[in-house]
Design brief:
By secondary structure, the protein is an all-alpha fold. It has a domain of 43 residues. 88% of the residues lie in helices and 0% in strands. The chain has four helices and no strands. The model has no long low-confidence stretch (mean pLDDT 77).
């Protein structure tokens, strides 16, 4: 019986993985940081001197801070709001 259940569950798990990956890819914070990394790689590929590479790293740090202060900050606030709502909903008693 357990084998049949596990066998039936396997396709659902396999279908759920791409959906979860798609949700992660749509995350604005992750997208912003990924773009910053891609820009760094492109910049480093074209860099000739050590000063150029240093400039690329500084630019990437600036982009990462911008992401962190923008999309990532918004996302963290939304997540903490969702989490606090869930916690407050579970802490309520049925009489409320």
């Amino acid at each position: 019986m357990k084998f049949k259940f596990a066998f039936a569950l396997f396709p659902l798990i396999m279908l759920g993985t791409p959906i979860y990956a798609e949700i992660i890819d749509q995350n604005p914070c992750v997208q912003c940081l990924t773009t910053a990394k891609a820009e760094l790689k492109t910049c480093l590929d074209g860099a000739i001197s050590q000063e150029d590479k240093k400039s690329c790293m500084e630019r990437q740090e600036t982009c990462a801070k911008t992401c962190d202060n923008g999309e990532c900050k918004i996302e963290r606030a939304a997540q903490s709001g969702i989490l606090s709502e869930a916690l407050s909903a579970t802490s309520r008693t049925p009489s409320e």
